[in-house]
Amino acid sequence: MCSIEQYYNHDYDEWARLLRHRIEFEITKRALSKFIPEKASVLDVGGGPGRYSIYLAERGHEVTLFDLCEKMVEQATENAKSAGVVLKDCIQGNVLSLCDILPGREFDAILCMGPMYHLLKEDERREAINQCMGLLKKDGILIVSFISAYAPIIDCLKAYPQDIGKLKDSLLRYLEDGRHDSRVAQGFTDAYFFNPADIRGFMSQFKLETLRIMAVESLGVLVEEKLMQLPEEDFQSWLDVFEAVASNPEVWGSCEHLLYIGRKVD
Length: 266
Known about the structure:
methyltransferase, Rossmann fold, Methyltransferase domain-containing protein, 20% strand
């Protein structure tokens, strides 16, 4: 079992994470609703315990969930049942073998919201996108999620600013080399943090028309807990603000997650 499977199968509650980080969840749902056509066939690669798969199934899409970790697939199956929705499939497998595992399948939209977090090698990150492209219909929508190289700095500011003396060099290093090796740095499993400025160039390698690159948490990331205590109307108004400025590159360094949204052109 690799470190990533160990982390999500045994060490971390991914289902609860998006309750704690509601800005990420709500802004991402807005993006999915805007860019995925009605009654689409959707493949959720790295779908974890099914938060977004269930959201899309509730809105009439035919959703197949795919994840590396056995526990995540089992949880997604149970969570879908609890939500009263049907997922077409819940499949365990590695994104690097996606086309072999799902031969002959095609999808109107593919979410790749997880794999880019955990592939340390450049060629594996390219291959993950190529695998998704191989199953995406012409004119289909690809949505890819990235963890920002600024995320470790933001986390340190929020949770343990007193540790900056010992962490300063490693935090700055992520901006040059986004690799986080769990064998030498604790706190997270193997991960890759993208410099936001590099996302457009990376995704330009593929036959995609870029529709949007956006900061997910945007300017709210450092005060998220405070915002979640506001009345719902005020919280939604802040989401409107964050969504409005999300595509401004000057905002991308402020957030922990970014979304790339593109359309397959060939």
